[in-house]
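This is your field. Pick holes in the following sequence-structure pair:
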Amino acid sequence: MRSGKIPLIYVLSFMTAIFASAQQVTIRVGYFPNITHSQALIGLARGDFSTALGANVKIDAKAFNAGPSVIEALFAGQLDLAYIGPNPAINGFVKSNGEALRVIAGATSGGASFVVREDTGISIAADLDGKTFASPQLGNTQDVALRSYIRKLGFTTKDKGGSVTVQPMDNPFILDSLRQKRIDGAWVPEPWAARLQIEGGAKLFVDERTLWADGKFSTALIIVSQKFLAEHLDLVKSWLRAHIMITRWELDHPDEAQRLVNDRIAGLTGVSLKKETLSLAWSRMQPTWDPLSMTLQASANEAFEAGFLPRTPDLSSLVDLSPLNAVLSEFKLPSIR
């Protein structure tokens, strides 16, 4: 090499590499102010995800009311990763012909219930006839569960010519509507089921765990856009590392976890949960990283029967467990199938 000078092309390549390594990446995250999204609430509040992702990654997090809105944002290119219920995730997967998203982990098993007002006289299935019930949003996981349950009892919803009304509305409005006796009950995730009982004069009619084998079913999952997964697999794994560590901490420190989740919900909604509400809600769910994939097909079948899907979907490529299992291997934890 002459004179010891470094060729310009090498200098430019080196500078480009330095710039790329220093360039900040933004990960846009969706979640709900529900305890079924406890890992998101805890990890964002404590900074677990920021620590895991590193200084060059900015987290742009947004709270949503229900899953369909999350899917709309993901389709619009406004979200990269989200905590979400199974039915909206499945719906988004089907509507995009399997292109938009992948499920990469679970977040919660259990934590959804059907409650009815104490003064409605509802005590058996036949009493649901002619009544009005709420769900968090049209087509969300609890909305599908409610419609499926009504159909299996032999009733038809009013929108299909039947006698039972289902009114989707935001969770805070459900509580107000129950208090004002505009609805007779609701199928909702926690902590709303517990709030409706303790603050709204409702009683438990169906704990959804009783409808599933072993009492386990997916209430919340982590999804990621296919684009982000392909371009930032390292960041997805880093997020999953934090998710697993938070989940393990929650299971070992339930009292501390409840307090932290309550503080975060209060910050987002302006309402702090009563201790008895939080305790009741927490008792019905379990944090997890297992997406409980076997329950997703059943949820998809219910969505199809409720008219939210055009066909019974093939979910064979919905769940991508390779990033999760790679991280579980690092922790020396059993892989998920």
The chain has two domains: 8-111+216-330, 112-214. Residues 93 and 101 are 6 Å apart (CA to CA).
